[in-house]
Structures are given as structure tokens and as C-alpha cells.
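Team,

Forwarding the record for the chain on the shared tracking sheet. I've put the sequence and predicted structure together so nobody has to dig through attachments.
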Amino acid sequence: MQTVLIAEDVEVVYPNGARALHPTRLSIEAGQFVVLLGASGAGKSTLLRALNGLVQPSAGRVVVPGLGSLEQPRLLHTHRRRTGMVFQQHHLIGRLSVLANVLMGRLGHYRSLSTLLPWSRADKERALAALERVDLLEHALRRADELSGGQQQRVGIARALVQQPRLLLADEPVASLDPATAERVLSLLHAICKADGLTAVVSLHQVPFARRFADRIVGLAAGRVLFDGAPAELSEPVLNALYGVATAVQSDHAIPTPASVRPPLSYVTEVPS
């Protein structure tokens, strides 16, 4: 299976000295729906944002096979253009129409001066098609702030899809939604990713959703990866370590390394000339 993204001993320490993420090695394979699971403050969002350069690693690096290390600004820009992002709080511009918000997903495909020109017919058609996929086509001309929370999150998904991404990152996309709406939004996101063969990394804290939708679960606690495996391998002792036993993450050796944790990776990364 093709590897699309690699974290090489990525560590994040904030300016106040807080270590949000201990050195982490992780590979993401094409077509997988990967869930980052853990309690609030576990390091899920930090890891996810590091994979897109929104958080700069203090040590280590993120590598895209065939592209190179994201330490290089030119390659980071290319990676971001290929990567859709869905946020917990939507990040929509409320006064603009739903359609206008979705079209923002096309900005990475334009040079700076081109963004002053009207949107092309092709991009408008892409945006309308994305809205149809999330069942919001009839709301295209409404103000974004007139929609419900679940609808706004679906607008965020459409905005990510209109980028025509190779990778989709979603940071707690259903954390602010009620259970029924959360299930609908996550089901929709999962179905679209599977239909398109789109690789996804989604941070969640709801264990039932992780077990239902994930191909692979990466469990974090206190900035460390404690589990990496299939949903069926997510045992009660692991869940206790992730959520219930605060002392379990104080030592690197407090919890046995799961058999499902992958061995060191070998790969070739070359920057195109």
C-alpha cells in the first residue's frame, strides 16, 4: 500500500515550555480512514496540525513521499494545496453566502492577483457539485451564519472537497454537534472519503465513532502514541490508558507497546527537480 504522509520523530514544544507532542513516528497510507483518538489535551490536534504545517514541529519533520520534507516553504505550499482541512469551529465567513464560502477552497489554486478576479464558471460548478454531495445545494445562496451547526460543518466539508485534495485532515469535526447530527456528519464524511478513495486523518474523542468508522486508530495520551492498530484491537486496558488512568502515561514503559504498533519505516523521499 502506498504511503502518502510520514511523521519522522515529530515533536512539538510550545514557547511556554509545554510539550504538546513527544517524538512521534507515524505513516499514513493511501485510502485509509485514520482516527486519532484520545481525551482532550492528548495531542491529537497538535499532531494533526503538524501534518499540515499549521503547527511547526520543534524537532523532527513531516515528509510527503515523492515531494519531500515540509520544512521547505515551496513544498509546504504544494502540500497544503493538495490537503483539505475541516475544523471543529467551521471557520466560515458568516456574512458571505454558502457558495462563496465553499469557493474559498479554490484559493490555493490561484496566484495572489488572480484572487481579485471573479470566480471562473468551472470553479462555480465544482463548488455547486461539492454542495450537492453534502446535501446543501438548495442553500447555496443563503448566508452561512443562517445555517445550523451541522449544516455549517457540511459547508466546511464541501469547502475541503472543492480543493480536489489527495488528503483530508479533520480536527474534531463533530465535537460541537449533538450526537445525532455528529453521526450524520461523520457518516457523510466517511462515505465521501471511501467513494473517492480519499485518504483521511480525523481526530475524535468519541470511542464508538472511532470503532465504527476507522480503518485504523492511533490512540494518544499526554502527547504520546500508546496505540496504533485496527478498531478490533482497541482493548479495555488500552482505553483505560487513553482515558481512565492518569498515571499510565507518566512513563514511557508504563504500558506495554501494542503488537499492532508498526516497526520503523523505510522509504525513499526525493524532491522533484
